[in-house]
Amino acid sequence: MTSTPPDTESYTDMKGDVEAIGSHCQMEYCHVLDFLPFRCESCRGTYCLDHRTEYAHKCAKEGEWARRKAALNNDTKLPAKPSLYDHDQQCADPACKTLIYTSLVTGVHCQRCNRHYCLKHRMEEAHDCKNLKPIGARPSNILQQQRDRGMSALAKLKVWAEEKKKKDAEKQTKKTGFLGLGTKGGNAAREALAAANDLKRTAKGEANIPQDKRVYLYVEASADTTKAKFPTGKFFYNKDWTVGRVLDVAAKSLQVQNVNNRGGGEEEKLRVFHVEGGRLLKFSEKIGEPCQTGNMIILLRGVGSGEAPDLIDL
């Protein structure tokens, strides 16, 4: 009787087809068997590692999955790239490329030429406003109203300045007569010197300003044109500072609301009036040119530009 020899094979028969483990790449001329295939979410095809991207297998429905996802988020299309013309403006100065009215940079509207500028070119002198033709026409009656309002404020200031000088002269005369000091001219000089020394001793300012660069001034805020927490004060400034910078510092010291940098009409802007010179100072002037130690400047609101006529001509 013969016996069946034992099974000596060392492998196990697989149940099913080996191709069931993975999938063939659907890319033409490829068809490689990939055990970890990739599915395209746009065309639903199956591809190998090399052809998994839409660009690699030249997907016929390229971008379909992104559109479906956007639709699920109630967003039918991707937002457009912000446009300079739709969102921002550029400073009207031809040589300036600064974008204004953005989240980081504000803009200033010039009422005179009706253009918009950055902070650097906001002053009329900085963008040569007097040589620009205004954009659009402004009714002549509005210009006349602004001019009349400014002239009225200056006329009131002229009366105030004359009364103040008269009172100061009377006060000086009474003091001179009471003391019985020499001649009138000598007394006036001594009084002026004493007043200047008192001004220098009590004036406030930035300590880093050199002594030879300081100009000591009386500063007031006109009661009928603005409201100030401190209506008057004694301060010193650097002679080389512009009137515009002095105005900013003086308004802060007297706690006067200063909206010059926010645009708007002349009725809200502050100007600097030099009592001894009898005129409004331009923002671009250096304070040390028209003013001397002991002079007085007044902060006024709504009196027009620095090209208004001098009070001595009123």
TrEMBL record:
SMART domains linked: ZnF_AN1
Classification lineage: Eukaryota, Fungi, Dikarya, Ascomycota, Pezizomycotina
GO terms assigned for molecular function: zinc ion binding
Classification via Pfam families: UBL_ZFAND1, zf-AN1
Name the record gives this protein: AN1 zinc finger protein-like protein
AN1-type domain span: 19-67, 85-137
Keywords (A to Z) from UniProt: Metal-binding, Zinc, Zinc-finger
Annotated transmembrane regions: none
PROSITE patterns according to UniProt: ZF_AN1
Organism: Massarina eburnea CBS 473.64
GO CC, any one term: cytoplasm
